[in-house]
Amino acid sequence: MKRQVHWLLMILFCGLAVLPILWGIRTSLSPEGERSLVPSSVTLEHYRKILSQGFFYRYAFNSAIVSIGSLAVVAPLSLAAGYALARFRFWGSKMAPLLLAFPLLPAITFLVPLVRYLNVIGLYDSLPALILANSAFCTPFCVWMMRNFVHTVPVSLEEAGLLDGCSRFSLLWRIVLPSALPGLMAVTVFVFVQVWNNFIFAYALTTAQSLQVLPKAVVGFIGSWRTDWGGLMAMGILTLLPPVIVFQFLQRWFVAGMYGLSTK
Fold it and tell me: Comparing C-alpha atoms, which of 187, 207, 243, 241 is closest to residue 70?
């Protein structure tokens, strides 16, 4: 009986998670004004309108720049900090579990001081501002993931490297990095998905039309007097595709990086 209840709850949970996406696909493929549950016909007109306009490619390029830029900042920082937490003992190492608390903090709580700080240093309303904010928000959890993965690297390999005359940097580059590469792949998945889908920073830290990213552009389909539901859902589905594809290909690295497991 417990097994049946377990599977029933799993099916219910999966249904609740997938239903909004299915409804979005249905709306994006329905003709304008279609209200029936099952559309009478299927059209790609909403996608054609979006893809035929240059703004979509500009916003997609901005999203890619911010995501890749954030990854370029977070990956080396998380590797170095994760290695330090895994291999060295100092007073701050005991507070490592607090890294898991930072991603739980709502971004809006520190948004006002963040805007003021970026204004002071002259980065407000720029893509570097989004890269800096997203990097700061993603780094704590990525450090925790890299710490878990460095724990899976045998200490004997590093000791052998030290005996051969390797410096700490050479040790990190030549021995730890190849062994902990799945952890960096997990960081890649986490950072890309988080940054690509982030709306709050894009909304608060950029105002220029040319600096919009895809999550912020989706809101543009909601008007004061009328909402283009077909265009809104089509834009949402197109925005959703890149992180879904990345996660689909790299999901096992993400799970392994979270729990420090082997991918073999």
Answer: 187
